[in-house]
């Protein structure tokens, strides 16, 4: 593991590391924000999963989250969104291949050789963080768009692993929208039944742990009607009796201006659970 960025930020340190991932079979970057409290004791960790076209850089440079992490004493970890490298499969367009890992474990060639982002963010990366940083085993998870999808399924598929979950503009029903259909057909094959294991609206009815879901969605989001469809998760949660706070925010779009406006509230939400 090699530290490739080290910057003072709100009394702590915003770092970026590179390591060889056994799960993905390639080198991976991840960002870690260590607030000032990390100098004296172990802290809980909030994992952030970014969206299509993003890397580990978008969240740490645009969201303004470090200020709130320093206030609450929370480590922030933001991985890249896909495997990368010369031997990693890729595709034309922004919504498949590098930068578009969709946080699933691909089962179809050529993607299955490297695209196991689910195992990476749920298992390998937290193990690395907890072994090498002043991190406790108290974890929370959040994300945006494709990463919001990743956060929701990670929490629903792993009872007891996270203390809280939230999302901004998540792809709540990837098996029912073009972004998800394209990615799932490539990564998982044509059996739509198999897709249900990676779809939050399908998982919610059988969730063994009922963590309350906090979701912020801008009502001026350009992808709202065609790709995000939060009403599908709202209806699934209502049918399952699963707690959901879906906040439709007037005037906000899909950008990091939206995330920056509400990230403080999300970190406070996670801090309440992580420090309980």
Which structural class fits the helix and strand makeup? alpha/beta
Estimated share of beta-strand residues = 15-25%
Mean pLDDT: 97
Instruction: Describe the strand arrangement of the main beta sheet, using strand numbers.
Output: 1-2-3-5-4-6-7-8-9
Rounded Rg: 17 Å
Q: Share of helix among residues?
A: 25-40%
Cα end-to-end separation: 32 Å
Poorly predicted sequence stretches spanning 5 or more consecutive residues: none
- Overall geometry: globular
Can you describe what's shown?
This protein is an alpha/beta fold and 276 residues long. It is built from ten helices and nine strands. It has helices at residues 57-62, 66-72, 117-132, 146-157, 178-188, 192-195, 200-203, 224-228, 230-240, 256-274, and strands at residues 2-9, 12-21, 26-34, 43-49, 75-79, 135-143, 164-168, 213-218, 244-249. A nine-stranded mixed beta sheet has the order 1-2-3-5-4-6-7-8-9, with helices on both faces. Strand 6 (135-143), helix 4 (146-157) and strand 7 form a beta-alpha-beta unit. Helix 2 runs parallel beside helix 10 (256-274). The protein is globular. 50% of the residues are buried. The model has no long low-confidence stretch (mean pLDDT 97).
What's the topology here?
Elements: E1 2-9, E2 12-21, E3 26-34, E4 43-49, H1 57-62, H2 66-72, E5 75-79, H3 117-132, E6 135-143, H4 146-157, E7 164-168, H5 178-188, H6 192-195, H7 200-203, E8 213-218, H8 224-228, H9 230-240, E9 244-249, H10 256-274
Parallel strand pairs: 4-5, 4-6, 6-7, 7-8, 8-9
Antiparallel strand pairs: 1-2, 2-3, 3-5
Helix pairs in contact: 2-10
């Amino acid at each position: 593991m090699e530290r490739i960025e080290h910057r003072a930020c709100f009394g702590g340190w915003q770092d970026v590391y590179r390591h060889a991932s056994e799960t993905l079979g390639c080198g991976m970057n991840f960002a870690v924000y260590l607030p000032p409290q990390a100098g004296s004791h172990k802290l809980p960790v909030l994992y952030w999963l970014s969206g299509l076209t993003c890397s580990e850089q978008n969240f740490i440079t645009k969201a303004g989250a470090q200020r709130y992490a320093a206030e609450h004493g929370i480590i922030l970890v933001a991985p890249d969104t896909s495997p990368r490298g010369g031997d990693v499969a890729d595709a034309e367009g922004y919504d498949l291949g590098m930068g578009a890992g969709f946080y699933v474990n691909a089962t179809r060639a050529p993607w299955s050789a490297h695209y196991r982002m689910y195992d990476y963010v749920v298992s390998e990366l937290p193990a690395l963080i907890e072994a090498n940083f002043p991190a406790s085993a108290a974890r929370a998870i959040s994300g945006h768009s494709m990463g919001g999808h990743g956060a929701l399924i990670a929490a629903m598929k792993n009872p007891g692993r996270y203390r809280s979950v939230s999302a901004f503009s998540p792809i709540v029903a990837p098996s029912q929208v073009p972004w998800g259909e394209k990615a799932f057909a490539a990564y998982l094959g044509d059996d739509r039944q198999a897709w249900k294991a990676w779809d939050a609206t399908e998982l919610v009815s059988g969730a063994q742990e009922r963590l309350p879901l906090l979701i912020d969605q801008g009502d001026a989001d350009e992808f709202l009607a065609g790709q995000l469809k939060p009403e599908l998760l709202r209806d699934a949660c209502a049918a399952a009796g699963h707690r959901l706070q879906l906040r439709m925010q007037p005037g906000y779009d899909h950008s990091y201006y939206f995330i920056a406006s509400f990230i403080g509230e999300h970190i406070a939400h996670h801090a309440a659970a992580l420090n309980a």
